[in-house]
Design a protein that fits this description.
Length: about 120
Amino acid sequence: MLTIELVDTNCLRSENTDRSKCQPTEGTHRICTVGIWDQPWLNSKQIREPQCSSPNLTVVRRSIKDSKDGVKTGRSLTPLSPDDEEVKDIAAFALNRLDSFDDNSKKRILVTVVEGTANVRH
């Protein structure tokens, strides 16, 4: 799970412009929490259940339960460092995929990774 802060830019999604050349616009920040299912052994990544809001609103998050009826599931949540290169790569992947989940015509750029956790199987 990643919580990322995004901002709209002056570039349209329909344009073939590199995001790094786009300029952020004022007042268009969003906080998004996204689940990312990464299966490196299959060379597969998928984005799941993105939830976005403006920063002054509360982001509703679903919790991942560690147990069911008191029985351990063999999973735990591990905090991820926003500075980790793999976390940055996954955040960039999420940013690209978020475009397909709403009607926003503007490209977005990543402001920061707010928080990240990994659901690790033991």
